[in-house]
């Protein structure tokens, strides 16, 4: 039962509309200092074969010992996915020969994974959401890497990654188009990063996706699927799905059938290519690894981890909406990345009146700050304007010390020169003028000097805007706009 | 010199303690014996320099009143145990001249306790065999011969080098491993004592794996007491082996001489095979009578799934082996045969590196784990295994302290005599021993008599999990009654 599966964008073919059915296997590298079954470091970018223990190199007589930190991280991830945690799971051997696999088998979990069914709520365009079911999550070893560019006649092997812990997160076939697929990976990545169980760095290969794609007539039986392997970019995932779905539709509409096979996406050509067919598929000869006892822990161990989980994006979003009155859209944008949520939370912490200014702060973070950061290619981590500075700016607006317009100037100064916003406002005389007498003087002067405009405005009240502009100009933007409006209306009698 | 090599470990410990001789003298005597016995092919690597260096070092310690429970005792090490900076091959061509940069846990505990390494002992390739004929270094010769015959006999296997060397007085004791009978069967063939401890009693770390769920290290020695002394050093929990068990190691030697009065000894009726040689039957009855005379109570017990043990074993063990041996691929260490592609490199390396028996088991193992066959073979065999285990549990639940069986269905046979046409003929050697591995229980083989041709025969005692002490107590009763057997020196 997938009652919450959202229909996706249908693809038009010659014979009518087609629905795409997508399921994903995400390989997420577990954040831990050492590997799944050895004490070797998991650090990225070391000299080839510098992080390799005797176990990782599969020396004779070496035995795996489970790294408890990896178990903890897998359980925490399972909890973050609202999933069933299995108190007993089993490690199996997946047997195949490849030079990057020293043991001749990968230790994985086949029949009894550590985490069972769960779900992820995915944010779609227009504030809609879809729920994607999680089939399972299991722990397994990563393989090493072949280096083909070191010698004209030989390939070299780097075992630094050999034995690094991965979580394979398998979704149900609940995804219906490329947009949903991208949103799913984005959301999963966000959850992992909130939990701190995977850094989510797709460029470094910390997060890779195998995407299963099939097409069918809406409501019809499932089609034969093809698996697109090893995708390491969210955009490529979208492109690969679009291409693959159309490829399959064309074949079927031309009277052909889809062969179940493994394919690779070529980002340069924007197409998928066959890697191996079902007939060439390995028989992995799975069996329980006799070197390892079943992995068992207690419910209270799980409960303890659950109690210490950080606030996750969905919970944070709900809190932002409920207690600060943010729009669902703004809340979504803020919580999408842990760093931006953290930044916003720090801004909030610097506000004297959160209830009054929380929403304003969200606007400023999203529109002014993120806009500017994007434009200049900065990350939130190296933002020239700190959360404390932004909080000060927002506070100055909220309490009426400066206007929104002046605030933009102030933001510009802080961005380029730095400094304490409050002091800057004092030092540079940027305070909003709320002294009615002073504003009235300016208004009177302008009315006296422009009788023709006065006449026009009296005839057509919309033209009063011209006066507002003049007053603001003369006051250097510091006049309180509301006060100006009120005064003008009274004086012009409109 | 001869006197120094014919002593038991217990006697040698006393001699070293009262300074009758030094470890260096003891070691030199054994090195000389090894050199004189090369025709037995028991050692595949002699390490005289290392042996003497270790002996000198331990002599210095003994002089200061230090040194552990095995201080100065020269031992042989089965070539399945990784020994740091000393070639370790599992007697397979595929490991070539592999020199591990690490020491197995079991051997490091022996050195910790002061033992001296004489060298590496021959075994069946990757411990797969029951005659030590599958070794890439050639067969080991049993120091025992049939009366009036020069026929070369096998010492059993896979720990054939260990058994032969201990029987021929080349080392005072040896390490061995037992996956289906590889300690107990060669012990029975050579009139030595072999102990297969409870699964998890000794660390498997650093021992070349054959079948991980069955492999267990243990000692071969000339007396029950000596085997108990060695066991104490070999046993113990090792965090590097998840399947090793965290239970304290008792003073096994203290179990020697402990009264067995009132102990219930099970005699399993299923072990009385059709066509069993009369002398095996007689030996078994005799052994039971000795235990009874010592005050034990004999009870007939039933282990109904015994007949399925061997077939199930020959599914589980090859299955695990096929996977365990996948790492010998020519990529990182050991033998590498050239190939134009990685597939060719694998194929030529493994074809050249593995012997016939190893290849046979890798193929059997690969087959039984294949999609479509897994349930019919591997899963079924695991179910049988559970039933075999339960047979023993039911038996022990009735108050049985140990079970007495013959160790082997026959005495030692000739080199090239068995298994040539039908490998099952060879596999049947383990008919009495595999059940113990399948159930993870401890077992001991003790010399108990000779057959009509003057060849030694052994009895097996099977104990409750982690009750090796009971086996030492009972084994010593058999030993006392049967006496000790030493082969006449002809080599």
Describe the secondary structure blueprint for this structure.
The complex is a heterodimer of chains A (494) and B (491).
Chain A (H helix, E strand, L loop, with lengths): L10 E3 L2 E14 L38 H13 L7 E2 L2 E4 L9 E4 L9 E6 L5 E13 L3 E3 L8 E3 L6 E7 L6 H18 L11 E10 L9 E6 L2 H20 L7 E6 L4 E7 L9 E2 L6 E2 L2 H9 L5 H12 L3 H8 L2 H12 L4 H23 L10 H12 L5 H14 L3 H7 L8 H14 L1 H9 L4 H11 L6 H12 L2
Parallel strand pairs in A: 12-13
Antiparallel strand pairs in A: 1-2, 2-10, 2-11, 3-16, 4-5, 4-15, 6-7, 7-10, 8-9, 11-12, 13-14
Chain B lengths: L1 H5 L2 H9 L5 H14 L6 E4 L1 H16 L10 E5 L26 H8 L3 E6 L38 H8 L5 E6 L5 H7 L2 E4 L19 E6 L2 H11 L29 E5 L9 H16 L3 E5 L7 H16 L17 H12 L2 H13 L6 H23 L2 E7 L16 H5 L6 H6 L3 E8 L5 E8 L4 H15 L9
Parallel strand pairs in B: 2-3, 2-4, 7-8, 7-9
Antiparallel strand pairs in B: 1-3, 4-6, 5-6, 5-10, 9-11, 10-11
Helix pairs in contact in B: 3-4, 6-7, 8-16, 10-12, 10-13
Strand content of chain B: 5-15%
Model regions low in confidence, pLDDT < 50 over at least 5 residues of chain A = none
The number of domains of chain B is 1
Helix/strand/pairing category of chain A: alpha+beta
The SS-based structural class of chain B is: alpha/beta
Helical stretch tally of chain A: 15
From the spread of the alpha carbons, the general shape of chain A counts as elongated
List keywords for this structure.
heterodimer, A: alpha+beta, 3 domains, nine-stranded mixed sheet, elongated, B: 491 residues, alpha/beta, Amidase signature (AS) enzymes, 11 strands, 13% strand
Describe this structure in words.
The complex is a heterodimer of chains A (494) and B (491). With 494 residues, chain A is an alpha+beta fold. Chain A folds into three domains: 17-305, no CATH class; 311-427, no CATH class; 436-492, Arc Repressor Mutant, subunit A (Orthogonal Bundle), CATH 1.10.10. Chain A is built from 15 helices and 16 strands. In chain A, the strands form four sheets. In chain A, strands 1, 2, 6, 7, 10, 11, 12, 13 and 14 form a nine-stranded mixed beta sheet that branches. A three-stranded antiparallel beta sheet of chain A has the order 5-4-15, with no helix packed on it. A two-stranded antiparallel ribbon of chain A has the order 3-16. Chain B has 491 residues and is α/β, with parallel strands linked by helices. Chain B is 37% helix and 13% strand. Chain B has helices at residues 2-6, 9-17, 23-36, 48-63, 105-112, 160-167, 184-190, 224-234, 278-293, 309-324, 342-353, 356-368, 375-397, 423-427, 434-439, 468-482, and strands spanning 43-46, 74-78, 116-121, 173-178, 193-196, 216-221, 264-268, 297-301, 400-406, 443-450, 456-463. Chain B has an eleven-stranded mixed beta sheet with strand order 1-3-2-4-6-5-10-11-9-7-8, with helices on both faces. In chain B, α9 links the parallel β7 (264-268) and β8. Chain B starts with a helix and ends in a 9-residue tail after the last helix. The interface between A and B is large, with 30 and 43 residues. Chain B: Belongs to the amidase family. GatA subfamily. Chain B: It is an enzyme of class 6 (ligase).
């Amino acid at each position: 039962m997938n009652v919450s599966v959202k229909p996706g964008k249908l693809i038009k073919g010659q014979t009518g509309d087609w629905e795409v059915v997508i399921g994903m296997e995400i390989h997420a590298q577990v954040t831990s200092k050492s590997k799944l079954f050895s004490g070797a470091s998991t650090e990225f970018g070391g000299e080839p074969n510098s992080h390799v223990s005797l176990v990782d190199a599969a020396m004779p007589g070496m035995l795996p010992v489970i790294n408890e930190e990896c178990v903890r991280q897998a359980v925490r991830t399972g909890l973050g996915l609202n999933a069933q945690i299995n108190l007993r799971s089993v490690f199996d051997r997946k047997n195949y020969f490849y030079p990057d696999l020293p043991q001749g088998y990968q230790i994985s979990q086949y029949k009894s994974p550590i985490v069972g069914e769960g779900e992820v709520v995915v944010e779609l365009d227009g504030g809609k959401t879809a729920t994607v079911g999680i089939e399972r999550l299991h722990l397994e070893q990563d393989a090493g890497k072949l280096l083909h560019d070191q010698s004209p006649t030989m390939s070299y092997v780097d075992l630094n990654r050999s034995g690094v812990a991965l979580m394979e997160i398998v979704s149900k076939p609940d995804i219906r188009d490329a947009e949903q697929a991208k949103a799913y990976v984005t959301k999963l990545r966000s959850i992992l990063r909130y939990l701190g169980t995977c850094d989510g760095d797709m460029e470094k290969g910390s997060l890779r996706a195998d995407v299963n794609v099939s097409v069918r007539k809406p409501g019809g039986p499932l089609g034969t699927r093809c698996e697109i392997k090893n995708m390491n970019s969210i955009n490529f995932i979208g492109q690969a799905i679009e291409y693959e779905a159309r490829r399959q539709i064309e074949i079927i509409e031309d009277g052909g059938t889809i062969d179940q096979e493994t394919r690779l996406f070529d980002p340069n050509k924007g197409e998928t290519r066959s890697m191996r067919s079902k007939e060439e598929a390995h028989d992995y000869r799975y069996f329980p690894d006799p070197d390892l006892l079943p992995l068992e822990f207690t419910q209270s161990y799980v409960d303890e981890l659950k109690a210490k989980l950080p606030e996750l994006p969905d919970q944070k979003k709900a809190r932002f909406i409920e207690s600060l009155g943010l729009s669902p859209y703004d809340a979504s944008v803020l919580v999408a990345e842990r760093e931006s949520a953290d930044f916003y939370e720090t801004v909030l912490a610097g506000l004297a009146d959160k209830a009054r200014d929380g929403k304003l702060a969200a606007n400023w973070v999203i529109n002014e700050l993120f806009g500017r950061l994007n434009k200049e290619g900065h990350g939130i981590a190296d933002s020239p304007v700190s959360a404390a500075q932004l909080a000060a700016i927002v506070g100055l607006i909220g309490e009426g010390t400066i206007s929104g317009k002046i605030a933009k100037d102030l933001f510009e100064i802080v961005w380029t020169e730095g400094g304490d916003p409050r002091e800057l406002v004092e030092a540079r005389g940027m305070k909003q003028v709320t002294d009615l007498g002073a504003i009235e003087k300016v208004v009177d002067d302008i009315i006296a000097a422009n009788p023709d405009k006065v006449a026009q405005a009296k005839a057509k009240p919309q033209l009063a805007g011209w006066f507002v502009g003049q007053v603001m100009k003369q006051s250097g933007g510091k006049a309180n706009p509301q006060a100006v409006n009120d005064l003008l209306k009274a004086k012009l009698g409109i | 010199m001869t006197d120094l090599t014919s002593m038991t470990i217990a006697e040698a410990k006393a001699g070293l303690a009262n300074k009758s001789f030094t470890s260096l003298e003891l070691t030199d005597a054994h090195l000389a014996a090894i050199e004189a016995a090369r025709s037995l092919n028991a050692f595949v690597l002699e390490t005289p320099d290392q042996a003497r260096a270790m002996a000198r070092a331990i002599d210095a310690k003994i002089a200061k009143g230090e040194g552990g429970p095995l201080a100065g005792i020269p031992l042989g090490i089965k070539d399945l145990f990784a020994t740091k900076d000393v070639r370790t091959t599992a007697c397979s061509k595929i490991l070539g001249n592999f020199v591990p940069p690490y020491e197995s846990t079991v051997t490091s505990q022996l050195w910790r306790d002061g033992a001296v390494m004489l060298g590496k002992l021959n075994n069946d390739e990757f411990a797969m065999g029951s005659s030590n004929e599958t070794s890439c270094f050639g067969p080991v010769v049993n120091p025992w011969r049939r009366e009036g015959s020069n026929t070369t006999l096998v010492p059993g296997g896979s720990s054939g080098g260990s058994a032969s060397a201990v029987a021929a007085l080349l080392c005072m004791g040896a390490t061995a491993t037992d996956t289906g009978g590889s300690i107990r069967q060669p012990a029975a063939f050579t009139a030595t004592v072999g102990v297969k401890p409870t699964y998890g009693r000794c660390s498997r770390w650093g021992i070349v794996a054959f079948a991980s769920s069955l492999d267990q290290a243990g000692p071969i020695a000339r007396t029950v007491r000596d085997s108990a002394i060695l066991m104490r050093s070999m046993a113990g929990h090792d965090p590097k082996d998840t399947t090793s068990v965290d239970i304290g190691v008792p003073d096994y030697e203290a179990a020697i001489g402990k009264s067995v009065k009132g102990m219930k000894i099970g005699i399993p009726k299923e072990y009385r095979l059709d066509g069993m040689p009369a002398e095996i039957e007689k030996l078994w009855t005799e052994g039971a009578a000795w235990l009874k005379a010592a005050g034990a109570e004999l009870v007939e017990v039933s282990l109904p799934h015994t007949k399925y043990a061997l077939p199930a074993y020959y599914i589980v063990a090859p299955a695990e082996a096929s996977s365990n041996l996948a790492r010998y691929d020519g990529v990182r260490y050991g033998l590498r045969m050239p190939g134009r592609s990685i597939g060719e490199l694998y194929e030529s390396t493994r074809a050249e590196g593995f012997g016939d028996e190893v290849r046979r088991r890798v193929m059997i193992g690969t087959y039984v784990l294949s999609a479509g066959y897994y349930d019919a073979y591997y899963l079924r065999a695991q179910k049988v295994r559970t039933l075999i285990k339960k047979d023993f549990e039911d038996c022990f639940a009735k108050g049985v302290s140990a079970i007495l069986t013959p160790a082997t269905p026959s005495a030692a046979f000739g080199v090239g005599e068995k298994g040539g046409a039908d490998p099952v003929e060879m596999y049947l050697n383990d008919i009495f021993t595999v059940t113990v591995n399948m159930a993870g229980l401890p077992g001991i083989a003790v010399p108990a008599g000779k057959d009509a041709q003057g060849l030694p025969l052994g009895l097996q005692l099977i104990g409750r999990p982690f009750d090796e002490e009971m086996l030492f107590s009972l084994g010593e009763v058999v030993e006392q009654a049967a006496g000790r057997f030493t082969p006449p020196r002809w080599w």
